[in-house]
From TrEMBL:
Residue ranges of domain Septum formation inhibitor MinC N-terminal in the record: 6-74
Function: Cell division inhibitor that blocks the formation of polar Z ring septums. Rapidly oscillates between the poles of the cell to destabilize FtsZ filaments that have formed before they mature into polar Z rings. Prevents FtsZ polymerization.
A Gene Ontology biological process term: division septum assembly
Subunit: Interacts with MinD and FtsZ.
Lineage: Bacteria, Pseudomonadati, Pseudomonadota, Gammaproteobacteria, Vibrionales
Name of protein: Probable septum site-determining protein MinC
Species for this entry: Photobacterium proteolyticum
Gene3D superfamilies reported in the protein's UniProt record: 2.160.20.70, 3.30.70.260
InterPro entries reported in the protein's UniProt record: CAP/MinC_C, MinC, MinC_C_sf, MinC_N, Septum_form_inhib_MinC_C
Glycoprotein in keyword set: no
Domain of life: Bacteria
Length: 220
């Protein structure tokens, strides 16, 4: 007999909104700005709200509705150990989430590098699961390339590059011509407006240090 459905464990990369001082309006104004800057990446994207620094006076119903109005989908809260706050969040429709352990990514057996020889066109998404990704051509604006390991782009990079998608903080992005909409390693990301002019259109290597992205010129 065919099963009607299956429930399996899986892992996904989610954006996290850190509610620093409990100011919901300020936080959602920030979200609106990010959605307008990169709608292909953030519009209707799931987001987890970290409330570890937000205090104990949080209107979860307002938080949920305002995040939705900003254009993203609130799926849960993290950074909450107070059972009373957890109950309030659940009543508002939030899941209670714990940060994933980064050690699991390091233990995952890596597979052979995935190589893409053709251009990656707008609207395409390529995911290299448990391996590095090499793109020997251009990546168009609106395209997305994702790898659990490192990413190498030998053409112009105009789309979104997400390395270390399963949490591998040692992942790198190597790019011959950086003009990217978004770059990300292990969940830490920059939009194009954060990329300094000296690196725009140049060969670079992007790494992660203490949860901050770092860009260096690619030595030839």
């Amino acid at each position: 007999m065919t099963k009607p459905a299956e429930l399996k464990g899986s892992s996904f990369t989610l954006s996290a909104l850190h509610l620093v001082d409990g100011d919901i309006e300020k936080a959602t104004d920030f979200l609106k700005e990010k959605v307008s800057q990169a709608p292909n990446f953030f519009a209707a994207a799931p987001v987890v709200i970290d409330i570890s620094q937000a205090g104990n006076n949080i209107d979860f119903s307002t938080l949920k509705s305002e995040v939705q109005k900003a254009g993203m989908i609130p799926v849960g809260i993290s950074g909450c150990k107070d059972t009373q706050l957890q109950s309030q969040a659940k009543r508002a429709g939030f899941a209670i989430m714990n940060a994933a352990r980064q050690t699991k990514a390091a233990e995952t057996a890596m597979e052979p590098t995935r190589i893409i020889r053709t251009p990656v066109r707008s609207g395409q998404q390529i995911y290299a699961k448990n391996c590095d990704l090499v793109v020997m051509n251009h990546v168009s604006a609106g395209a997305e390339i994702i790898a659990d390991g490192c990413i190498h782009i030998y053409g112009t990079m105009r789309g979104r590059a997400i390395a270390g998608a399963s949490g591998q903080q040692q992942a790198r992005i190597f790019c011959q011509n950086l003009q990217s909409e978004l770059i990300s390693i292990a969940g830490n990301y920059w939009l194009s407006d954060k990329i300094e002019a000296e690196f725009w259109g140049k060969g670079v290597v992007i790494s992660l240090a203490e949860n901050n992205l770092n860009i260096e010129h690619l030595a030839l």
